[in-house]
Request: fold
Amino acid sequence: MSENSTMTGGRLLVDCLIAQGCDRIFTVPGESFLAVLDALHDSPEIETVICRQEGGAAFMACADGTLTGRPGVCFVTRGPGATNASIGAHVAFQDSQPMLLFIGDVDRAMRDREGFQEVDFATMFAPLAKLVLRIDDPRRIPEYIARAWATALAGRPGPVVIALPEDMLLEQVEARPPRPAIARPAQAVCPDAMGTLMRMIEDACAPVAIVGGAGWHAKAREHFTSFAERIGLPVAGAFRRQDAVPNSSPAWAGNLGYGPNPKLVERIRNADLVLVVGARLGEATTDSYTLITPDHPGQTLVHVHPDPEELGRVYRPDLAICADMAEFAEAADLWDDDIVPFDAGAEAHAEWLDWSNPKPNGHALDMGQVVAAMRAALPDDAIICNGAGNFSGWWHRYWHYNGFPTQLAPTAGAMGFGVPAAVAAARRYPDRTVIALAGDGDFLMNGQELATAVQYGCDMLVVLVDNGAYGTIRMHQEREFPARVSGTTLHNPDFAALARAFGGWAERVETTEQFTAALAEAKARKGLRLLHLVIDVEQLSAAGATVSGLRARAGK
Reply:
């Protein structure tokens, strides 16, 4: 659109998204935004991915935002559509993912009458989003889209929710050309702060870094890895940020979260300097704020984050640095003061290598050996997508994340994320290997998106771990109330048959030997493939928890 012209609000909105660089949206259609769907009909610049449930569509937008560094875009209708999609907004918020969630709304004249499917979105999404907007005047669409895009990217990335009254989208308006694309602001690091940090590192005896999170991307990864390797600094990944540093790097010390290496935990407890770059130091990373406490007595804490509101919010830093992750990492990498290298980086990496190589556990289908077989067969840049559940722990412990981006996993702990995330990854990177990991309970949260995968020709493998239970909750149940199983047993369908019904190839696997053969067959095929792994609930977690062991500990 090169000059003023008359168009619907829906057409103007789509033109504004195109101007910002949007090339894909995820949606479940609704009558409340038909004008947008009509505009998309004539917009080859944007691929419209039609999903089967709004939660799945929102998860795809979350994943796409992580993969591109641009806001992932989702359109849903009011009421049920918005409430279904709210899980995606929550994940994007807690995971610091840029996202725009557009919600078709009631007509402007019907507002506040509790019309059909009406919801007060400003109130509903206030704790789940960085910003909630409502566009009542179509002439202001360019202003609102630019603001939403900029807000989703700035500081700590996150979701912005935009309500779109149906009649506003249908209104004809004379519009100016959309605003030019907005780039993420990149704040340079203060030289004085960098000098102070380097002196702190020089004075430290046992420093450690925890990295990954808001605004982390390939450039930050490259420069911080180089810096850490040069000075021998052990680097741990925050919860589900395991691709923040190549795991093959001699500086990589392993991941924090649930079931971390005890030697890494001890190393962090004994550290005299903790350098946190990009991470929020959330509950999972810090073991409920106990591994590093908010006041961290006896430890010096340096917190580097792109959002000033995050610095000092929970943790009291001795040095707070507000900077773009890549700018900080590059400044550290290029800092020319000599620092005597530490021996700890190589030591920590050796400990992680030992921890991350599985030993046989005696089960018919040994999950550690499953991951080892996948490591041997699949490329380093395979994208691993998972939802929530104990099943993911085997990959968190044993998979080596060397490419980038290669980990799509919700730090918010939302179930059902893996399959939608894999669909988004397969569309964004059609030439890369994409794996969706799911538990039986986790899979049935969003397994319907297999239909989306087939519709769009996604080349992806689903590895489904079926133990007939909500395994994580069963583990906690056996720990707190041993031998009193309640509410955690599942009666499951034939998942392989289900995948075939969707149009994919599938195979049931019950032993480690069968898995190796089935993986080779799956690797030789294209399109949707699913391996249905049937394991005994006795094999509860990668940390070695078993039902019998927990009961024996309790004397049951």
The chain has a mean pLDDT of 94. The first helix runs from residue 9 to 20. Residues 88 and 394 are 25 Å apart (CA to CA).
